[in-house]
């Protein structure tokens, strides 16, 4: 019996140990899991500072000649020859076309003959008046005869003046047979070939466009213009050295060497485009800019005196509005709604929503949500001229 009891205990002991292990494992499965520690997201942040910044942004512009002149025939006649090469640059006063001058030369000669005849009549009338003046003293002629002599002299003087005017008119018409360039510039193709009859119904011969200086018409958003005017009036922004200038951008890395001087701003807003037209004049000695050329234009010399700026890449937009992520006191991301102002060469000016000293996330925004634990690294303000804001956000 003793051996049997010992045998039973020896068999039951391993079984009990196995059951206890299973129960222990089951208890471990029912225990709540331990939450892993979440890692902080590394981001670059920029500290908000109020300082003077240059207003930036690029806007569309189109070039046009400073003077565009239609060259027309001012007398009727046969076009004999063209003396310039189409598309050639010509000087002011250069001969462009020759119209048959023979009929006008004859008219001038006739007018000169009539002038000579009138001068002869004037001399005869003057002599009669002189004799009448002597004879009236001795009552050799009547007063009526004296008055007639005086009237003849006046008619003769008027005839001379008329003849002189006819000579001048004939000379002008003769000069018009030589069509000359009124300005220096580049010519277009001829409209009528040699041998054509030119006159009032088909007077256009060619066109000349002055390229130096050249004009640039710029289209600015109406909100931008209104904001600039308001801020200039309030003293928030000013033009550097009092000059209103724009910088012309020909390509991605190609800036025109001369600044354009703004000389006109339209007083009304275009109803179709919602823009305000601005005109600038720029030297074009080498003809690098041609009329009709599409250009990009940057405002130059316009400075916002005390502004906070964030790079455009830090700005987000959602259905709730425009916002940035700010770092709170516990290094967590905080969503802050902001109001945007003008674009600058460093980014976008913040009008409201942030204060001096705030840390704004500028790199790593896509990995951040509200409440995300952050590992921020502060970076200095870096101009980001190539940053762009979604259309409609910055205005």
Chain-wise SSE layout:
Blueprint: H1 2-30, E1 41-47, E2 51-54, E3 58-72, E4 77-82, E5 89-90, E6 95-99, H2 102-135, H3 143-176, E7 178-180, E8 185-187, E9 197-198, E10 204-221, H4 222-234, E11 237-239, E12 245-251, E13 254-255, E14 260-265, E15 275-282, E16 294-300, E17 302-310, E18 316-318, E19 321-327, E20 333-337, E21 339-343, E22 348-352, E23 359-363, E24 374-379
Parallel strand pairs: 1-24
Antiparallel strand pairs: 1-23, 2-17, 3-10, 3-16, 4-6, 4-9, 5-8, 6-7, 8-10, 10-15, 11-17, 12-13, 12-14, 12-16, 14-15, 17-22, 18-19, 19-20, 21-22
Number of strands: 24
Strand order of the largest sheet: 3-10-15-14-12-16
Helix content: 25-40%
CATH fold description of the domain at 58-65 and 211-305:
Elongation Factor Tu (Ef-tu), domain 3
- General shape: elongated
- In CATH, the homologous superfamily of the domain at 58-65 and 211-305 goes by the name Efflux pump adaptor protein, beta barrel domain
The level 1 CATH classification of the domain at 58-65 and 211-305 is Mainly Beta
Could you name the ranges where pLDDT drops below 50 across 5 or more consecutive residues? Answer: 1-12, 14-19, 22-37, 383-395
- Element pattern in H and E: HEEEEEEHHEEEEHEEEEEEEEEEEEEE
Continuous helix count:
4
The helix/strand class is: alpha+beta
Outline the biggest β-sheet.
Answer: 6 strands, antiparallel, barrel
